[in-house]
Amino acid sequence: MAAISFNHPVTRVDEERGHFFGHEHGFGHHHSTHIISRPFAGRIGGNQQFAINHLHPDRSSILHRTPDAAPYLSWSDSFRLTPLLHLELWKQAFYEGWAMCMFTFLSGLTTLAVAPLGEATSLGGFVPTLIGVTETIISLALFIYVAGPVSGGHVNPLITIGTFCARLATFPRTVLYVSFQLVGATIGGFLVRAAIDNGPLPAKALAGCYLDPQLTTPATAYVIETLSALSLVYLAFGVGLDPRQRLVVSPSLAPILVGFVVGLVLFCSAFVKKGYMGACVNPARCFGLMAASGSWNYHYIHWTGDITGAVINGFFCWLMPPGSNARVDDMTLSPAVEAEESK
C-alpha cells in the first residue's frame, strides 16, 4: 500500500495505547506532541475514522481491553464484562455524565426562558420552538466536538443504546454510559432548579418532556416517540457513523449534521398534536428535568419509544451493514493507521 500524505500533523499511531503522535514543523523548529485518542467504533462524528480492524494480529491486546475499538463485534464479545475492570472505561463514562449535566443545564434554561413566548405572539409555540431547536443544534454539535475524542460524544442514551444494538458498543459501556448520563442529567436538572430559585420546575414548560393525558393518549405518544427516535438514529448513524460517508461527509462536519438531525426531529414533532410538546429523543435529559420538576407523567414512553427505535435501527444495521469484519477492509481503518501500515 502506498504511503498517504496528510495536511494535518498526525503521522504515526500507537494503537496499543490508542495514542496519536503528531509532528509539526514551523519556524525552523521541530515539535512533538502526544495526543490521546481512544479507538471506539461508536464515536459519533468519527465515521469509524478511529476504529481499528479486528483481524490484524497485533491488535488483539487492544480488543481484549476494548472490544468495541473495532466495529461489528460479536454478541459474545459485546457482553464480555472484562472492560469493566479497566479504569479507562469508567473515566469515559464519567465524561459522558459530565457532558450530559452541562447539556441538560443549558437546554433546561433555554426551555424555561422561551416558554412564556408561546403566549406572547399570535404564532403560539412556533417562536419558542424555533429558538429551542436552534439552541439544540448549536449546543449539541459543540458537545459532540468536545466529548467525541474522549467518550465518543453520545450525550444521549438513545445514541448509546443505538450503537449497542448496531454492535458498535459493548454492553458494559452501554450500561455505564446510560447510568452516568442519568446521574449527570439529574444534577443538571437540579442546577436549573437552583438557578431559577423558584421551587420545582414547571412540568408544562419542559418541551419534549410533557404530555397532557387529557389531549394525547399514551399510545399516540409512543408511536410518535418511536418513529422520531428511529428517524434520529437512522440519520445520525448515516452522517456520523457510516464509514462509507467518510469521503462524502467529512468526519469534521458530521457533528454539525447530527445537531441538525436532532433539530429537525424536534421541530417536526413539536406541532403534531395538541397536548404533546414534541418528541423526547433524549430520555436522560427528560429524566433530569422531570426529577427537578417532581412530575413523572408517562416518562416510561420516553424510554420504551427510544429503545424500540434503537432496536429497529440495529436490525437494519445487521441486515444491511455498511462494512464487515469478514475481511480486511481499508474502509474501517483510519488514514493514520493506513500510513503506518504502509511503512
TrEMBL record:
Keywords assigned by UniProt, alphabetized: Membrane, Transmembrane, Transmembrane helix, Transport
Q: Which GO terms describe its molecular function?
A: channel activity
InterPro entries assigned to the protein according to its UniProt record, in alphabetical order: Aquaporin-like, MIP
Transmembrane stretches, by residue range?
97-117, 123-146, 175-196, 221-241, 253-272
Q: Which GO terms describe its cellular component?
A: membrane
Query: How the protein sits in the membrane?
Result: Multi-pass membrane protein
Compartments where located: Membrane
Keyword DNA-binding listed = no
Q: Which family does it belong to?
A: Belongs to the MIP/aquaporin (TC 1.A.8) family.
UniProt protein name:
Aquaporin-like protein
